[in-house]
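Problem 12. The chain below contains 240 residues. Write out its predicted structure in token notation.
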Amino acid sequence: MAKRRGFILMELVIALSLLSALLLFSQRWVTQQALGSRVAANLPAAQQMLTAIELFWLHERRAPTALSELVTKGYIAEVWQPWAGQWQLLRQENMLRLTLPATDLGLAQRTSEQLPGAHVNADDELALHVFEPIQLALYQRYLHRVADTSAPEYNQMEADLDMRGHTVRNVDGVDAQTVVATRAVLDAATFGNVRATTLAVEDLVADQASLGGHDVVALAQRLEQLQTQWNQCRSNGGCQ
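Solution.
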């Protein structure tokens, strides 16, 4: 009888252990399912916000400085806010980085696993990344044939223009600080400063000019005075 009671006690301990393990597993399973449901419910709103940022960046030609701009300009109805906190935005070259302090690390980790390019950083923040739209990057890379008044930088070059023997035609005006050319044919030109080893002109009109260190205008005025004096001498019968 005592031996039978020992078996009953052992069976009871085993049964309670199995029941505890089952309850613990069930609790964890229920928790994971609830967490997964919260993540699944948040994903569409998260994707919608990230898409709205890309559209804003493309249409406005800049990244938003605050997520509230997405709402005020009509890109989304409201900002995705998975938990309480303040989104921080940081522009890094061709990428916009969004961070939100995680109040629930489990939820943050599961969310980051479902969003491409997202992760939980060392500061326990959910970090999202939105890259500059490729269309906008191409717009900024190349010159445009037609000027864009909203983005004048699209028609500005930051490099020297080397035509390699090709011709620029139908140009109404050239505004440049320096023009280096081996040969120029001009019907009409106005120069503020001309420096040349050889200059051949049919008609030269200058307010200020110097040749060999002498003031050409002063020389011309002196020659005009001498010519006037010579003419007076001739009219008077000769000069001494």
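Discussion. The beta strands are 88-92, 95-101, 119-120, 125-131, 210-211, 214-215. Students who got a different answer should revisit the alignment rule from Section 12.3.
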